Amino acid sequence: MFITFEGIDGSGKSTQLSKIYQKLLLDGHQVIQTFEPGDTTFGKQLRQQLTQNSLDGQAELLSFLLDRSIHITTCIKPALAQGKIVLCDRYHDSTIAYQIKAKALKASWLPLWEKENLLLPNLTFLFSLPLPVIIDRLKQRQKTKQVNSQAILAHFDNNIELLTKVQKSYLSLAEANPERICVINAALSIEEITQQIYNKITSLLSV
Ligand code: ADP
Ligand code: TYD
After folding, report:
1. Is the entire prediction scored with pTM above 0.85?
2. Is 98 in the pocket of ligand 2 (CB under 6 A)?
3. Cα dihedral: 173, 174, 176, 179 (round 10)
4. Cα-flanking dihedrals φ and ψ of residue 185, to 5°?
5. Ligand 1, residues at Cβ distance < 6 Å
6. Nearest-CA residue for atom 5 of ligand 1
7. 123-128 vs 31-35, strand pairing mode
8. Of the bound ligands, which one is closest to the alpha carbon of residue 35?
């Protein structure tokens, strides 16, 4: 089963992903946690370029898709083929929300790329909460995260107008895909959210 975690920066995705990973492991499931941009040579380069703001729009879009192709081939598909549950922090909905909808990058060819290359998640959790709460959390997190992440934050997170558009775009994606995307009220406590996500996953695993 392929499960993705989506939402704007600071919405609590990685906190929940690691908690769910631990719970599923304890239950005896075979599970991996992964993320995009990925933990590959290319993914690292992409993060570096994002921090330096050195990519134009098309290069940024194509880079996220290339990173995704590598990730699907080298990590996600092999893990699924071994029967593992794959928990992924950000995936294709991020590209739709950030590059296509919020940044309005032109990509009339994208539906064809998706048809021929994209592996759709079975389930996506979309973390949604008011922007002011997110901004407070990001300020807190900036004090603790690594330098690399801080620079990425400078590229994306400090742009409130962009984040507002991203948030709206995510919600319209959820409306269009109610069977796949489960919207989580990310203002709830960490424990409550973990329980909701865990219940949803285990109910699907038992079908
Ligand atoms: P993301 O991976 O979506 O960028 P994080 O999981 O890193 O977000 O969370 C951002 C910050 O918010 C962290 O400091 C984290 O401890 C805190 N946080 C996460 N979930 C909650 C929650 N439900 N309530 C309050 N704070 C939270
Ligand atoms: P990261 O620090 O991993 O984000 P998070 O806040 O989720 O911990 O930074 C990744 C950034 O890259 C984030 O701002 C969203 C952005 N991004 C895109 O714009 N498009 C994409 O397709 C992906 C995967 C990420």
Report:
1. yes
2. yes
3. 140
4. -75, 100
5. 7, 9-15, 137, 140-141, 189-190, 193
6. 12
7. unpaired
8. 2
pLDDT in tens, 93-116: 999 999 999 999 999 999 999 999
Cβ neighbors of 197 (< 8 A, separation 6 or more) are: 16, 20, 125, 184
Q: Residues 62, 164: contact at Cβ < 8 Å?
A: no
Q: What is the pLDDT of residues 38-83, one digit of tens each?
A: 888 999 999 999 888 889 999 999 999 999 999 999 999 999 999 9
Q: What is the DSSP string of 158-187?
A: T-HHHHHHHHHHHHHHHHH-TTTEEEEETT
- Which atom, in ligand 1's list, is nearest to the CA of 16? 6
Give the tokens for residue 83: 């029967």
Q: Is 51 in the pocket of ligand 2 (CB under 6 A)?
A: no
Chain-centroid distance, C-alpha 59: 20
Q: Report the distance separating Cα 42 and Cα 107, nearest Å.
A: 22
| Tokens coding 91 | 């995936």
CA of 177 to the centre of ligand 2 (A): 21
Ligand (nearest to CA of 67): 2
Task: Please tell me the distance from the alpha carbon of residue 155 to that of residue 138, in angstroms, as a whole number.
Answer: 13
**What are the φ/ψ torsions at residue 191 (nearest 5 degrees)?**
-65, -45
> What's the 16 CA to ligand 1 centre distance in angstroms?
8
Q: What is the distance between the alpha carbons of residues 105 and 81, in angstroms, rounded to a whole number?
A: 34
Instruction: Note the maximum CA span of the chain.
Output: 47
The DSSP bridge pattern shows strands 2-7 and 181-185 to be unpaired
